[in-house]
Amino acid sequence: MDSFFVYSEVNEAYTFIICIHHYSLFHLEDYMKRKKWLLLLIVIPFLIFYLYDQNNTLTKSSYTVRSDKIPDSFDDFKVVHLSDLHNKSFGQNQQKLVDKVKESEPDIIVITGDIIDERRYDEEPALTLAEEMVQLAPVYYVSGNHEMRSGKYDGLIDIGINVLTNETTLISNNDASIQLAVIEDPSPSNAITVENNLQQTFKEAENSQFTLLLAHRPEWFSLYREYQPDLILSGHAHGGQIRLPLIGGLVAPNQGLFPEYTSGIHEVDGSSLIVSRGLGNSLFPFRVFNRPEIVEVVLKTN
């Protein structure tokens, strides 16, 4: 009889433990589900804010370029470099971008292409920016691959932008000058076309003068150097789109994975290449660790 009661008590205890176990598992699973939803509610708004910040907060990178060929009257001459807008707007009438450029008090503004996007063509942001920029300083423009394929940039000339194509012109300040050389985006993009464009551009260039070259694509740096420009300004690479800490850009058009030229200054054989990370996006709609960039270059005589 006693053994029966012992067995019953043990059985009841076992049943109780099993019930507690299932109850705990049920509530633990329920708790974990609620925790996941809570985590998503926290992470998603943070991610949205982060991507908005990365794609809309303008930054400015400043470089100083020194050369014996820079005339005294060009000492502290400021060049603001914009690239790859891709139809993007920074506030009403581009006011945020305009204010950022104003801060630099530029002597000239240069634009190295792709201010429109052929896949979602809307010229209004580009023309609005152009209208504002010509009020600040003389503006010089070279085509990017999106303009070359669409063929739509005539409106810039009407606004007062200096649209240059495979040519060299002089920028004067007081009684001295420097050379501005421009090569249009090569179509097709191959070494032969780039070489032909460079030959046409530099056929009347004066090597003794400081030469600033505007060229949309940075990946042809080795070909540009053959014509000994002192400074080259390029864009096109979008900063590598996603910039990995301690590594740099992840991918760029025509350079592939882990590209060499996506940002910053590169100095080889007396030529300096400065690559803008650009302002907008094209195929891939987001920037990560890669805010939109305005480049400021200050010329200094040695």
Automatic annotation (TrEMBL):
User: Which superkingdom, per the lineage?
Assistant: Bacteria
* Coiled-coil residue spans: none
Q: Ranges for the Calcineurin-like phosphoesterase domain?
A: 77-239
UniProtKB keywords = Hydrolase, Membrane, Metal-binding, Transmembrane, Transmembrane helix
Q: Which GO terms describe its molecular function?
A: metal ion binding; UDP-2,3-diacylglucosamine hydrolase activity
In the record, biological process GO terms are: lipid A biosynthetic process
* Pfam families linked: Metallophos (PF00149)
GO CC terms: membrane
| InterPro entries linked | Calcineurin-like_PHP, Metallo-depent_PP-like, Metallophosphoesterase_sf
**Record protein name field:** Calcineurin-like phosphoesterase domain-containing protein
